[in-house]
Amino acid sequence: MPVGGHKVPPTAVEFETATVASTISGREVELEGMWNRMFEPRVMTDYGPDGFARLNELDGAQSLEWCYGCGKCVPVCPVDLVGEYGPRKLHRMVQTGGDLLTSDEIWKCTTCANCLRVCPKEVNMIEIMPAVRAEATQQGNVPAELQTVFEQTFRQGNALGANPRRRPAWTKGAGVPVRELPKDPAPVDVLFLVEDYWSYHPRGQEAAQAFARVMTALGIDFAILGAEEKTLGDSQRLAGEQGLFEALMEEMTATLDKYEFTRIVTPDPHAFNALMKEYPKHGHTYEALHYTQLLAPLVGQLEFIGSIDAKVTFHDPCYLGRHNGEYDAPRTLLQAIPGVDLVEMGRCKAAAYCCGGGGGGMWLDGFMSDHVSERLSERRVREAAEAGADILAVCCPYEVSRFSDAGQVHRQREPPGARHRRDARHRDGQPRQGGRVRTIDFGRASAVRSQSVWHALAASMSAGDQPVLSFVQPGSPTCASATTAISPRSTPTTAPRPAFRCCAGWWVVARSTSTATSTSSRSQCRPRRSWPPLDRARRAAGAGCRGAARARRPRRAGRLRRDHARRGEGMGTAPARSTRA
Predict the structure, then answer these.
(1) Do residues 514 and 418 make contact, with C-beta atoms less than 8 angstroms apart?
(2) How far apart are CA 346 and CA 409, in angstroms?
(3) Range list of β-strands (E), 124-283
(4) How far, CA to CA in Å, does 182 sit from each of 216, 218, 224, 296?
């Protein structure tokens, strides 16, 4: 109690044992002295403030010390739901003498900003993680797969390590003219920054082509940088390569200064975040839009001739939603599609769950497999299935491949017979209980008139009113004429010669002009022993699947003989014995 303005601590009277009688039953209970010690003040004396002092020297990492352990961040942390993580746990680790700079813990954070949304002390992991990772990177403490991405970005200007001259290759299949500013440097209204995954990834290229057709149909004057474009490097910055980000920024701003344009449109929320928040810090200000923000005000010009009769749920990208406050534009597009029943997952908008690709997590799947029980994208796909959705719509280039891979795992983990029972219920007219989710990017669509615009899941037309993508059921009369079809697991017998890949339990039939009858094999979607292989573009970026890819290659006979010789085994015949003494 305060006495004379000073707080007087209570006097502790401790006994080895004490007997306490219950006021209800009168029963006596004997307590040991350890029960009494828990009420004494406990002062931490085993560790000093050196850990936080070291972090406070890093620009941006000071706020970790502000944590007072309320724990609000832990339940909303997406990584903690599949592992053990959270800002409070990192604070405790540093508080008890742990070295954050050499720990694997710094690479688990996806910088989704959900913890910052609820933190009363504003412990900002969006500033802490890049600062700590930058120091760890300078010391050489970087996961190997992430180091590979850094090197590829430095050499080629993109995270996939692809040839910069191939950046405009997607324009050949767009069906409309796409102007490249290096070849035609006239002023332009919209500068379309395609970024890496829409430039090189096969599914991203389809989205870029559809988006180009949409802008052409709307009469938008747009152009691209072609081979002169480099990634804006926001993901690399969040992963710890601040120097690489600044170098990319200098090169890109020098390129942008050569041309006249009104605004920049990009499909990548990370690139959008860089243009909105990071570039202005260095004196480079541009009018930037995410491509859904460009299309949402024009939704009234759409004239749909078809409908998508399905339940659709939307995944909010962290760097479009929580970081930059855009939740309405994608939903405006989805709600305009005839027949679409938009349903929300339990975690949506400001409280949306993370896909796991932010903060460099796109290239850390191999690393994260040792630290979490399941990938964040796998859990998100389950949430979409539990919401009863047929289609999981996304508007971030990272999420198409992430959710497609996660969908394969979700189907593999179903109990035996679950899929057949669910499909039987659906055939009988009963509501489906989740489990089958198509992951469709906003760049993939079905049919609208060429005078209208392409739209999320509702389709784009080529110059001759021929549908570029249509969603049909097996046996549908339109299935034979569709250039691309997405159908349930049983493939249509009249589909044009397809190239199959399993997308969240749905067969995706790639574009083909041949009329040959399709033949498929269930082995193309066989279960994997552990994590499913990532697609070729992400494997090329060093996503931890090179060992698995090598393991699936047929081994040459010579190598087999050498291996058997080392183990003292034969290959059908006994090894020749030496005649030397």
Answers:
(1) no
(2) 21
(3) 179-180, 188-192, 222-224, 261-266
(4) 20, 24, 9, 30
Joined together, the tokens standing for residue 434 give: 């989740």
The rounded distance, in Å, linking the Cα atoms of 350 and 3 is 49
DSSP state at residue 274: I
User: What are the backbone angles phi and psi of residue 19, rounded to the nearest 5°?
Assistant: -110, 125
Sequence-ordered list of residues with C-beta below 8 angstroms from that of 8, at least 6 positions apart, any chain = 1, 2
Calculate the CA dihedral of residues 457, 461, 466, 469 and round it to 10 degrees. -20
CA distance 522 to 411: 14
pLDDT tens track, the chain, 581 positions: 455 566 677 676 667 777 888 888 888 888 776 655 555 555 556 677 788 998 999 999 999 999 989 999 999 999 999 999 999 999 999 988 889 999 999 999 999 999 999 999 999 999 999 999 999 999 999 999 999 999 999 999 999 999 999 999 999 999 999 999 999 999 999 999 999 999 999 889 999 999 999 899 889 999 999 999 999 999 999 999 999 999 999 999 999 999 999 999 999 999 999 999 999 999 999 999 999 999 999 988 877 778 889 999 999 999 999 999 999 999 999 999 899 999 999 999 999 999 999 999 999 988 998 899 889 999 999 999 999 999 999 999 999 888 888 877 655 555 544 444 444 444 344 434 444 455 545 444 322 222 222 333 334 333 333 322 222 223 333 332 222 223 223 333 333 333 323 233 232 222 322 333 333 333 333 333 334 444 444 444 544 444 444 444 444 444 444 554 454 444 444 444 443 43
Residue 249: alpha-carbon gap to chain centroid: 23
Single-letter residue type at 39 = F
Measured CA to CA, the distance from residue 200 to residue 198 in angstroms comes to: 6
Question: What pTM was estimated for this model as a whole?
Answer: 0.69
Q: How far is CA 369 from CA 34, 83, 376, 380, 527, in A?
A: 41, 11, 11, 16, 17
- The burial class, CB within 10 Å (0-12 / 13-18 / 19+), for 286 is middle
| Number of CB atoms found within 10 A of residue 263's CB | 14
The sheet with strand 222-224 has its strands ordered as: 179-180, 222-224, 188-192, 261-266, 288-290
Q: Is the CB of residue 321 less than 8 Å from the CB of residue 327?
A: yes
Of the candidates 170, 240, 249, the one whose C-alpha atom is nearest the C-alpha of residue 210 is: 170
Q: Exposure pattern of 385-410 as b/e (b: 16+ CB <10 Å)?
A: bebbbbbbbbbbbbbbbbbbbbbbbb
